[in-house]
Model the fold of this input.
Amino acid sequence: MLEIKNLHIKTADKEIVKGLNLSIGENQIHAIMGPNGSGKSTLASTLMGHPGYEVTSGEVSFLAENLLEMEPNERAEKGLFLSFQYPSEVEGVNITSYLRMIYNKSREQKVSPIKFREILKEKMEILDIKEEFVNRYLNDGFSGGEKKRMEMLQMLVLEPKLAILDETDSGLDVDALKVVSKAVNYLVEKNKMSVIVITHYTRILNYIKPQFVHVLKDGKIIKEGGEELAHEIESSGYKSYE
Ligand code: ADP
Ligand code: MG
Done:
């Protein structure tokens, strides 16, 4: 569903991603791992359509269409989800209204607030989210863990075909990791969603088990393998790939 061929990405006049190839099939879980500064977030931001990153050569197709020509919102409408793509703060909009808005938009239909409450309730139960939370205003004073909950609730509402989670190497607590893995594993099972987990650390991979692991270093994939590669990195770090 996602094909990346010989991708080169530049930012601030510096080449960061230097010829990356990656192929993601339906219902597959991939991990992209790599030391700090290897280009992981650059790749994620580029796939999202962040204007600060320039693709200088290469191709990216998503569901057989040219991803690089799509606006960020088109990418989302086609079924691509990026973990940090929600608006930072929307004044006066509570979470339930916001989620109903994106639900209706992604399906080109209108469900009533009452009907949507029912739909949302089921998703809140999956993540063990309380009623008080969805009555709050969007991102208003959210903690790191609450932002993650919001993100994952948004993912369950959108039901994307491919989710890209850039874990940004920040220390998520165990509760937040569980929320992320519950949401991801639920959609992988129920909707045959595919996932790319981008991370420096192996910790999240104990909750979301990758079938394919790619090691990114200095803008290139330098090693690939199965889940065992993540365990190898857990015990020996990235040093052995230098
Ligand atoms: P990772 O997510 O793997 O830690 P990044 O993609 O964030 O790596 O960064 C890779 C390299 O690109 C780093 O050297 C970083 O300083 C540089 N870089 C990333 N984004 C920018 C930017 N907007 N401006 C300048 N340099 C950047
Ligand atoms: Mg990063």
In short: The CA atoms of residues 12 and 52 lie 8 Å apart. The chain has a mean pLDDT of 91. The helical segments are 40-48, 72-77, 95-107, 113-127, 131-134, 144-158, 174-191, 227-236.
